[in-house]
Amino acid sequence: MSIYGINPMVPPSGTGCGECLASKGWWVHLRRCAQCGHIGCCDTSPSQHATNHFKTTGHPVAATFEPGEEWMWNYESQSFIQSTPLAPPQSRPEDQPVPAPADNVPANWRDLIHR
């Protein structure tokens, strides 16, 4: 069954924010587009790629990509929605540090996040 903005068959695009990796950036937490599988960084992260993905594609639903979490956010309604199972994996690797990737995270990272 297909739900608006959610394609449960699409796997995630990777284990980290593709845009941050390409630009030698870093992220705090990860979000997964429930429609196309794009992995982007959260709004606390400096670059906010998950929200930017919604703004450029119109894909309305993001799921957490953090271990032990299970929730979805609808950008259009600005609200949490009932979580729907997506294709595995459900989260980034548990041994991946936060923030990540470790080699790109500046020592003053706490001063650089959005609160």
From TrEMBL:
Database matches in InterPro entries = Znf_RING/FYVE/PHD, Znf_UBP
Q: Where is this region: Disordered?
A: 82-115
* Biased segments, Pro residues type: 86-100
What superkingdom heads the lineage?
Answer: Bacteria
Transmembrane region(s): none
The UBP-type domain is annotated at: 1-104
Q: Name one Pfam family in it.
A: zf-UBP
Q: What SUPFAM superfamilies does the record point to?
A: RING/U-box
Protein name (record): UBP-type zinc finger domain-containing protein
Give the organism's phylogenetic lineage: Bacteria, Bacillati, Actinomycetota, Actinomycetes, Micrococcales
